[in-house]
Amino acid sequence: MNNNGKIYKTRREREGRSIEYLFVSHGETDIDKIIQYQYVGKINNKPIFNLGFGDYYENTTQIIDNIVSNNGDVYTVFNTVLSTIPELFNMHPNAIIMVRGSDSGSKFIQSCRQTCKKNCQPHCKKENRRITIYREYINKNYDSLNKEYTFFGNSGLAENQVGIENYRAGEKYTSIFVIKNKRKLVL
Amino acid sequence: MKTKQSNIAVSAKKLSDDERLAIIASKIKGRDLFPERTKSAKKLLQNVKILAKGL
């Protein structure tokens, strides 16, 4: 799953139930990036992996996922993240991948309003920008992606009880779930 | 021209990508790297209803 564009070489790590991919973004600066698929539970006996993605800071060994790097290589970075999805399904064919943005939810808005000078009302314009990138990619490539994957969406936040529904292009989901379609045996 | 790196230690400057990533891998081993996201994901899954077919 990628735009058939340039991707960075990744290093895969596997520890317990989580899987990490590390790579270096060579844009205006060199930035170490980490993708983590963290096991978070099961639905219908299928393991769910939450996709985390952020920048690694060596000085503090922290990983920050709520800043915008603006490193000039957004498509290469995005393609690199997408390229790890088929690999995850190779390791866990029954997995459900859960994708959410670090800029979705009430905590992000509260944090943004403390420092942002734009004072957007009534809605924070910086909210949900990350998940929107994934949604737009799915919407744009839905027919071809749908041959290999099935998508589901959820529009709610952790605080509210909400449903996971079959993906509908155009809906403003805050969480996306992906499974790999089973291959049909052709005789 | 490349600007000063903000998140790469000077000591790692001469290392290749592979070497650098190997060091990072050893430092992050076994860690939940996005604990807030994991917590939030688990909370969402506790509250969610499956309305979809095929999941």
Rg of chain A, please?
Answer: 17 Å
Poorly predicted segments of chain A: none
Basic shape of chain B? elongated
Which band does the percent of strand residues of chain B land in?
under 5%
Largest sheet of chain A: 9 strands, mixed
Determine the mean pLDDT of chain A. 88
Q: Specify the helix fraction band of chain A.
A: 10-25%
Find the structural class of chain A using helix and strand composition.
Answer: alpha+beta
Report the mean per-residue pLDDT of chain B as an integer.
Answer: 80
Order of helices and strands of chain B: HHE
Structural class of chain B: mainly alpha
What is the chain-wise order of helices and strands of chain A?
EEEEEHEHHHEEE
- What is the count of helical runs of chain B? 2
How many strand elements of chain B?
1
Instruction: Tell me the count of domains of chain A.
Output: 1
Strand residue content of chain A: 25-35%
Helix content class of chain B: 40-55%
The greatest inter-chain interface is formed by: A-B, 57 and 40 residues
Distance between the termini of chain B: 49 Å
